[in-house]
Amino acid sequence: MDKHPLPQGKLWLVGAGPGDPDLLTLRAARLLESADLIVHDGLVGAGVLALIPPHVERISVAKQRSRHTMKQEAINALLIRETRAGRRVVRLKGGDPFIFGRGGEELDAARDAGIACEVVPGITAAAGCAAQAGLPLTHREDASAVSFVAGQCKNLTDQDWSGLAGHGRTLVIYMGLATASAIADKLIADGVSPGLPVAVIERGTTADARVLRTLLTDLGDLVARERVASPALIIVGKVAARADALDCLGAPGLIASLKDMACDS
C-alpha cells in the first residue's frame, strides 16, 4: 500500500500488462487494492483480475471485433461521472494504455472534464510476448528499428507499408489475425520479401501461450491452418527466426529456407 492515502475523486489509466499477473507493475498492483471502482477491458488477464479485492466494484467494458459491450463515448462518460462522484476510479487496460488502448482518448475526455487523471504504464504485448518467446525485437545483426501497427486499420490496401518491414527492421502487428492474409499480401506488394521470417504468438505470457514460426508468404495460411485465436501478435522480421517456436510451414522447402535464414542472421 502507498504511505499516504489516495485522493478522492481521481482517475487512473492503468496498464495491466500482456496477461501474466507477475508482469503487473507495483504501482498498478497497489492501485487495484486502493480503488473504489475498476473499469476493465476484456484483454486484462484473469490472473490480474483475481488480484482485485472482493469489496472493490468492477465493471467490464470488454470489446470484441465488430461488437462492443459499451461504446467509447459511454465509457468516457462512466469514468467522468464516477470520478466526479468522489470515487477512486481505475481504468484497467490490457498491455499499455497508450499503445492501441484508446488511453489517449480517455485522457483527453478527462482533461476536457477537468478531472484529475494519472497514467500508469504497463508492459505492452510486443515486449512481453517477444520476451517469453526469446525473440529480441532489436538485434545488432538483424534490426535497429521497430514499428508497431494495428492490423484492424481501415483502408488497409490504400496504406503504404513499404518502410515498416524488411532489412534492419522489425514489424509488430497487433490485432492482425482477421486480416493476416491481406497484411501479408500488402507487405509483399510494397516490396517486402515473401521469405521474411514471421512469428505468431498466441495468448502470449500465459500458461497457454503458443509460438509459431513461418515465412511471410505463408502467414495467412498459417493462421487458418493452426486455428490461431485472439489475442495474438504477429512479428515480421529476421529476428522472428530467433524465436523459441514451433516451425509450422505449409509449403515444401519453406522449413529449409527458414533454417537457412536463421543461420545467416
From TrEMBL:
Keyword Transferase: yes
InterPro entries tied to this protein: 4pyrrol_Mease (IPR000878), 4pyrrol_Methylase_sf (IPR035996), 4pyrrole_Mease_sub1 (IPR014777), 4pyrrole_Mease_sub2 (IPR014776), CobA/CysG_C (IPR006366), Siro_Cobalamin_biosynth (IPR050161), Uropor_MeTrfase_CS (IPR003043)
An example molecular function term from Gene Ontology annotations: uroporphyrin-III C-methyltransferase activity
Domain of life (superkingdom): Bacteria
EC numbers for this chain: 2.1.1.107
Listed GO biological process terms: cobalamin biosynthetic process; methylation; siroheme biosynthetic process
Pathway(s) it belongs to: Cofactor biosynthesis; adenosylcobalamin biosynthesis; precorrin-2 from uroporphyrinogen III: step 1/1; Porphyrin-containing compound metabolism; siroheme biosynthesis; precorrin-2 from uroporphyrinogen III: step 1/1
Keyword set, alphabetical order: Cobalamin biosynthesis, Methyltransferase, Porphyrin biosynthesis, S-adenosyl-L-methionine, Transferase
Alphabetized Pfam families for the sequence: TP_methylase
Protein family: Belongs to the precorrin methyltransferase family.
Record's protein name: uroporphyrinogen-III C-methyltransferase
Protein source organism: Sphingopyxis granuli
Gene behind the chain: cysG
